[in-house]
Amino acid sequence: MKKFIKVLFIAIPVLIIAAFVALYLSFGWITKKAVETLGPDMTQTEVKLEESNISLLSGKGVLRGVFVGNPEGFKTESAFKLKEVKIVMQVPSIISDRIIIDEIVVRAPEITYEMMGSTNNIKTILGNIKSFTAQSRGKTIKGPKVESKTDGGKKLQINNFIVKNGRVNMSMDMLNGKKLSMTLPDIHLKNIGAGKEGKTASEVFEEIFRSVNEDISNTVSGSTNTFKQRATKTMDTLKDKFKKLFGK
């Protein structure tokens, strides 16, 4: 009996350490699996993550090669391409009812804004996320029906969400296959999901996506107006030259 107790006292710490090591080594895989499972459910697009490297000791990590495709019907390859996303999270919060991420920094994202009729790909993805969020709450809203799993009851809080040096490539029929490229102003959102009741992952990402969509739309609108003004000015110049040459 004493021998059994001695073995037990030795085995328990070893098992705990082994479990921690296994969790540490697999945490990146778990994150990748979560992104590639919940992402398509929310956006109704292809979502891929090449690499996830997050330390359970420091809470710091990086996601590389984040790819968000386009909804059905759009022609361009993707909506978002993110080479690198840096994350700083509060490790103890992983086992609580609210995961707290201090900072997410997205550097130099490549965003494709594709117009199709009266809508665009970013607006369509936002509608899919809203539908997913509403259905996870047991509500119904106008828009496409999203058949998906819920994101569970665990809450998510992001203290700082930062986008730097982003580029938006606008695609539309009148550009004849060409893209109009423009700079996206830096974005800094604070205390998302920090309220008393908290927010689920889908609710948090709906808020982020809604804000990012507004910034993208404003950027595209401003650049489109500038493009139209330049085109009008060019046409006016050509008309003046035509009148001088032909007197009409």
Describe this structure in words.
The chain has about 250 residues and is an alpha+beta fold. It has one domain (about 1-240). The protein has three helices and ten strands; from the N terminus they run αββββββαββββα. It has helices at about 1-45, 120-135, 200-245, and strands at about 45-55, 60-70, 80-90, 100-105, 110-115, 120, 155-165, 165-170, 180-185, 185-190. Strands 1, 2, 3, 4, 5, 6, 7, 8, 9 and 10 form a ten-stranded mixed beta sheet that branches. β5 and β6 form a beta hairpin. α2 packs antiparallel against α3 (about 200-245). The chain is globular and about 50 Å long. The termini are far apart. The model is unreliable at about 5-25 and about 225-240 (pLDDT under 50).
Topology, pairings included?
Elements: H1 2-43, E1 47-54, E2 60-68, E3 80-89, E4 98-107, E5 110-116, E6 119-120, H2 121-136, E7 155-164, E8 166-171, E9 179-184, E10 187-192, H3 201-246
Parallel strand pairs: 4-7, 5-8
Antiparallel strand pairs: 1-2, 2-3, 3-4, 3-5, 5-6, 7-10, 8-9
Helix pairs in contact: 2-3
